[in-house]
Fold this sequence. Notes:
The protein is of the alpha+beta class. The chain has four helices and four strands; from the N terminus they run H-E-E-H-H-E-E-H. A hairpin with a 4-residue loop joins strand 1 (38-40) and strand 2. 28% of the residues are buried.
Amino acid sequence: MRAVKHLGLSVFVLLGCVGCDQATKSLARDYLQHHRSMSFLGDTVRLQYAQNPGAFLSLGESLPHPWGMILFTVGGALLTAAVALYAFFALKSGRLRVVAMSLICAGGIGNIADRIRYDGYVVDFLNLGLGPLRTGIFNVADMALMAGVGLLVWQLRPDPKL
């Protein structure tokens, strides 16, 4: 029964995150692609369309396009599949770990879907910052991935009761 509950939780997280990611990317393509960036909350939040051929924070964007597409699409798919298999077979994991692994998979799936649909590019559109200190441009899939990694790191703390 525990496996069924974990699977249900995982499917819920996956569908929610991937759906939200793809919906927001669609809106970004429709409303931001051919327009200037939009700023909110005193430029703390900036909506700015970007096509990212690289990985996190455009890492690897200087690779020749065919190599980058293969590396990030196939490599990303293999890493996402490995995390999904681990999550599936680690049935003794608690709910927090299931959520963490599902968030990581959702982030991977969202960005891989873009790479397949858009010739190796990922749609990014969010930028946060205060004054000159700003993040790179990212998307909902990146947030899901980072949240999943953050939850895994949280579980590694010395006293899990804190």
